[in-house]
Model the fold of this input.
Amino acid sequence: MKSKEMGEIIMTQAKLTLNNDLEIPQLGFGVYMIKGDEATKKASLQALQTGYRHIDTAHAYQNERGVGQAVKESGLNRDDVWITSKLWPSEYGEGITSEAIDKMLGRLDTDYIDLLLLHQQIGDYIGAWKDMEKAVADGRVRSIGISNFDGERLDHLFEVATIKPAVIQVESHPYYPQHELRQKMRKYDTKIEAWYPLGHGDTQLLTEPIFATIGQKYHKSPVQVILRWHLQVGNIVLPKSEKPDHIRSNFDIFDFELTN
Done:
């Protein structure tokens, strides 16, 4: 379905329901490796104008202020844009994490964060999780999750967590589909969020003949076919680009459907 918004024609996108009953836009806009707040604001504004309603950033990216500025300048209601950010291990620990969340809210210039993730599985991640649970209780954060956790530390966190992670952000793409992790997370209804959804800019992945063949059938590019695959396997997907044409092309995946 198409609708007019912010002066452009956009395509209404899909949402997933998290294990806390909140709905997250399934196609997000990633800002990893966009340097500086001004470039981040420019790219994020383009994404919001195109129709994206989910922006994924992190303290480690050093561009949260640009994301916050884009949301403010977009003219959209804050409740209509989902913001995800991540805490770095130096910010882990009871009391320390709570203070870090307040600083993050200041950088983003917002009253709440929609999804807050632990960025890496090192340091006092249990103390950090306790503070994140308190931030959910007091309304500073709506959803909490993890990034790059696996093995014993992943199991440990789920054992001690009162609020089970709503999302786990990991590398995932057709060469690395994360089937075992997906099966494991079903018990908790924890959604997989894919970084590097197109691989590491892998030419071999993007030139796989099957994607070109499918793309010809639907009049779509291999990149669009891969992003559509992510949606249909149930991933939250976060493509990144600073090029307006690519930002729009990455969003143009809601008018076709792959067969099983």
The chain has one domain: 2-251. The first helix runs from residue 37 to 50.
